[in-house]
Amino acid sequence: MTATANTTRATTSTVGALIRAGAVATVAASAATMAVAAVGQLAGVSLDVGGAPIPVLGFGVLTAAFSLIGLIIAALLARFARRPRRAFVRTTVVLTVLSLVPDLIADASTATKALLMLTHLVAAAIVIPAVARRLAA
């Protein structure tokens, strides 16, 4: 019975550390993508897709939403995968590559497409390692 209690505590603290690291990474990634978008806009890159402008704040909101989905994936993998870190990194790298496809086919200038893809890569570069470090190898 004592072993069960210790295992439960270890799992709980690991999940707590995962959530904390994910939350910090989500905030950092959201701020970073908004900064990239703002700098791009200041440099003259249009944020218009299909004739409608994407607000700089929109980059942060979408980054936060998809980072939280990534955190849910990490928590599920931590619970069910044999090698959670490896599964998380592979899954999120594939999802990051797939996230570039809509940018490639968007009705936008080449510079806008490049900026959109850069924001995806910046967010992934912040969130994936931060969350992966908290998962069992």
Helicity, in percent? over 70%
Strand order, main sheet: write it out.
1-2
Derived from helix and strand composition plus strand pairing, the structural class reads: mainly alpha
State the distance separating the first and last CA atoms.
27 Å
Description of the molecule:
Strand 1 and strand 2 (52-53) form a beta hairpin. The chain has one domain. It is built from four helices and two strands; from the N terminus they run H-E-E-H-H-H. The chain is an all-alpha fold and 137 residues long. The model is unreliable at 5-13 (pLDDT under 50).
Present the secondary structure layout.
Blueprint: H1 2-42, E1 48-49, E2 52-53, H2 56-80, H3 84-105, H4 110-132
Antiparallel strand pairs: 1-2
Helix pairs in contact: 1-2, 1-4, 2-3, 2-4, 3-4
Pfam families: DUF6069
Protein name: Cell envelope biogenesis protein OmpA
InterPro entries: DUF6069
